[in-house]
Amino acid sequence: MPDYSATWSRWILGGVAFALLGLFLAGASLLTPECDSCREQLASLRTTSPYDEALTLYDHQGASLAVVGGEKRFTVPFDSIPVLVRDAWVAIEDRRFRRHGGVDWLGVGRAVWANLASGGVAEGASTIPMQVVRTVWTRETAEMSRWGRKVFEARMAPELVDVLGHDRVLDLYLNGLYMGEGVYGAGAAARHYFGRSLSQLDLAEVATLVALGKTPARYNPREHPERARTRRDLVLASLARQGIITPEQRDSAQARPVETLPTPPLTYTRSWATAAVRRELRQVAPDLVGRPGLRVFTTIDAPVQARADSLLRAHVAAIEAGERGTRAHPDEAVQASLLALDSRSGEIRAVVGGRDFQESPLNRALQSHRQVGSLAKPLVYASALELGVSGAHMVSTDTLAVETEAGVWAPRDHVDEAHLLPAEVIIRSSNRGAVRLGQEVGAHRFVDALARMGVDSDAQPYPSVFLGAFETSLVSITSAYAAFENGGRAVSPHLIRRIEDWDGTVLWERAPAVEHTLLQESSAFLVLSALQGVVDRGTGWRVRTALSPDRPAAGKTGTSNDGRDAWFVGAVPGMALGVWVGHDQPLAVTRGGSGSTLAAPLWGAVAATLPPADPALLESGAWTPPSTVRAVEVDERGRVVLAGCEATGPRRRVWVKNDHLADAVSACAPSLPRAGRGALGMELGRLRIPAATVGSGSSGSGAPLIPR
User: Fold this and answer.
1) Cβ distance 48 to 250 under 8 Å?
2) Which of 3, 284, 300, 497 has the smallest set of CB atoms within 10 Å of its CB?
3) d(CA 56, CA 293)
């Protein structure tokens, strides 16, 4: 016979338990203080996030780059949370969620009964709304007793559902969960453990996250994969029983191993890039600083940034180990900085401000000003071209003495030739040639030209300014060099594209850049051609040890007095790149060190890792020359040698502007009309300039920028 006495005993115990529970809740409710500020905050929860969400940064492809400050949280708008994710969590955590008003009294009774029957705490009764109350008002409940918090949750949960509705409560729940390893919210957990967004997860991964939410420390799939799998399979079985998934889907998902990223994909500490982005955020949108949950879409290329960081550290270590020459001050820490920016848009793809951010957060790429040395010479050449100096103009490198207020200034040189073409002045880095070229520009006009080209410097109109006796920043000089690769157009270096609120609302977006021309396209190309010569057969030859022979590269070495600053700045198609090496104190790095020995190797190593350029930028492996320039042969006096003419001395090939040809033809050329240089294009046929020397200048496998 059934044991009716035992059954009646359980019912009596249950009734007594409910009565006691009711009396306890009533008494505790009277002893638990009201929270008027909590009720005032309720209405704001409809549209604002209550969580201290971190500043989340994304790279230029939209992939997660870093989380800075605040909690490691990624708020996902409710409409973007997959239905499967919503239903799975409700099914496991609070299956009557849509049918109760905040507190599931049937669940409370079931939990009390189970706990009485087991003699301990076997089952909880917290609903999703009650858990949201706990996460939203953590500070308010911190000083309450355990049972006082339970009463507060039971009191506030119905109000929460009444004011916000079930969808918004579920939204707050899924974005407020603690998911282990310092991560909050299902969206952040998806990226943290699987490297993908919630919408990209499969059924097995969704079940793994739901299982993790139970007890993150116990079911962490990265640390306890077998334990996580067991719990995940229980979740899948429960979903199948409730009809949310089919038995076939359950079996397929249970057959999957638990696979997570070996390490978290996000950076939670500050770095050169994140600190620079935050600095720019304060400049472009100061009113948004400190606003929780901001999403900043940056211009950083995460793989390029990571490789640049690693290569710079390795390069500094090699210098300190004596692999780049004898250290001049071995007790001083070697520093270096690097900047890579898109030469079309000005978007910064990578920025490294020093050897170790934790040692010194000073960003030497963006904030330090150092003397540039020979980096000024291409800017002198560009200024001379803009004023009408021809690319075929012969520049004297004879001994030079310049009268100044401080006395006679006589720059030294290492070049033996008496005359050089302007491009060769750059390739050979001739000091006297650069000063002679600069004298044709004028010191005052050159200082003005520096400002127009965006070089933020302390340059003064003294003769030494042509040799780089002024200080500027790496970002400033690199953006100026970008104009050579960009057809003479200016770029404005920047790190932020747009800023969104936690719910995807765009709060700030960079306006389209207004095109601003710094140089004629022909002038920019002639300087670029000289800079390619620096890499291929000049002072920057060490770049070629890292780059393949068929990859175009252009740049210039720079060394300040006594080797205190070593530079290499230049471009590959589509990208401008600058490197500086030195000490924080103005001291020589190595004995006899220069931009060629200390900076060029790092530049080449980083350039070799950059993504391939758009083929449209190139012609047969080299930059495509504009139609406004020609490649010609010149004699030792810089005169164009035409077919049938005899040249005195060796012939050299060089790029010149079309409208400079009339002033550079050899003595045996027929007379040209002087009505204007614009007529020259129609006269070229009569002059019978060979096709090999006019036009693209193609020869062999491509169009060399410095015709040979």
Assistant:
1) no
2) 3
3) 7
pLDDT at site 701: 27
Tokens of residue 364, six digits: 């030497």
d(CA 560, CA 567): 9
Which residue do the tokens 């003495």 mark?
Answer: 401
Count of C-beta atoms within a 10 Å radius of residue 276: 24
Dihedral of CA atoms 199, 202, 203, 205 in degrees, nearest 10, equals: -90
> Among 285-294, 313-322, 391-400, which is the least confidently predicted range?
285-294
Q: Would you say residue 225 has pLDDT above 50?
A: yes
Contacts of residue 441, defined as CB under 8 A and 6 or more positions apart, other chains included, come to 380, 383, 384, 387, 449
What's the number of CA atoms in the CB half-sphere (13 Å) around residue 636? Answer: 8
Neighbours of 398 (CB within 10 A): 11
How far from the centroid of its chain's Cα atoms is residue 364's Cα?
16
Cα 363 to Cα 60, 274, 506: the distances in Å are: 21, 11, 29
Predicted confidence at residue 267, as pLDDT, reads 60
For residue 112, pLDDT beyond 60: no
Helices H / strands E in the chain, number of each: 23, 22
Q: How far apart are CA 71 and CA 76, in angstroms?
A: 15
Cβ neighbour number for residue 498 with a 10 Å cutoff: 14
Mean pLDDT of 92-110: 78
Q: Please give the pLDDT value at position 305.
A: 95
Note whether 530 and 426 are within 8 A (CB).
yes
Burial class (CB in 10 A: 0-12, 13-18, 19+), 296: buried
Q: How far is CA 424 from CA 391, 533, 568, in A?
A: 10, 8, 18
pLDDT at 227: 94
Residue 349, φ and ψ in degrees, nearest 5: -90, -30
Q: Name residues whose C-beta falls within 8 Å of residue 311's C-beta, 6 or more positions apart in sequence.
A: 602, 605, 606, 609
Among 4-8, 198-202, 250-254, the minimum mean pLDDT is found in 4-8
Mean pLDDT across the chain: 84
Give the pLDDT band (50/70/90) at residue 696. very low
Closest among 167, 151, 16, 189 to 78, alpha carbons compared: 167
Distance CA 653, CA 650 (A): 10
Q: How does pLDDT run across 22-63, given as a tens digit for each residue?
A: 544 544 444 445 666 666 778 788 877 777 777 889 999 998
Q: If we measure between CA atoms, which residue out of 530, 512, 522 comes closest to residue 571?
A: 530
* C-beta of residue 513 within 8 angstroms of C-beta of residue 557: no
d(CA 671, CA 529): 30
What is the pLDDT, as a whole number, of residue 160? 87
Q: Judge contact between 325 and 520, C-beta under 8 A.
A: no
Question: Per-residue confidence at 269, pLDDT binned at 50, 70, 90?
Answer: low
